[in-house]
Structures are given as structure tokens and as C-alpha cells.
Amino acid sequence: MPKRAVVHLRYGPYSSVGLSVEHRTFRLEGLQAVLMGDGHKVVLEKIGDWDVVELMVNGEVVFRCNIKDLEFGGDGKLDPLCEEARLAVLKAY
Question: Rounded to two decimals, what is the model's pTM?
Fold first, then answer.
């Protein structure tokens, strides 16, 4: 895969600690950091599917998970899902 791919990080709304359902990016910070650390450009896109995170490269979904499974904040280095997502982007081509 080329080093500077454009990765579309699509995310849906979710409810946190009984609060209303909204699009929030706090759980995406580590994932963004890991992908940008590899030199990729990350484009955030809101979608309507609840609790979903998808990574798209060249119009193809290469990774999908529940947004609540990602660690809150941080740099993503210790989150196994961030590493799984990073490898999925590397294997996208």
C-alpha cells in the first residue's frame, strides 16, 4: 500500500453513560493517531448506523467494529483494535 493513503473513518452515533445518542469522536482519537502515525490522511465522516466504525480505503470497507469497543482517548498504541485496523489499512491494496 502506498504510504499516504486517504482513509475515510466513518462513524455512527452512540450513547455514552446514559447520555443522549450523538456522534462523538472521543473514542476515535487513538485510531486517528495510529493511522496518521503511519502517514495516512484521515477523513472523518458521520454515518447514521449506531455504534459503528468503518475504515474505507479506495471505496472499500477494510475494517469495521463497534465504536464502544475502542478505548476512550489515548494514543491508540495499546488498543488491540487500533492495531487490527492499522493492519487492515496496510493490507487494503
Answer: 0.91
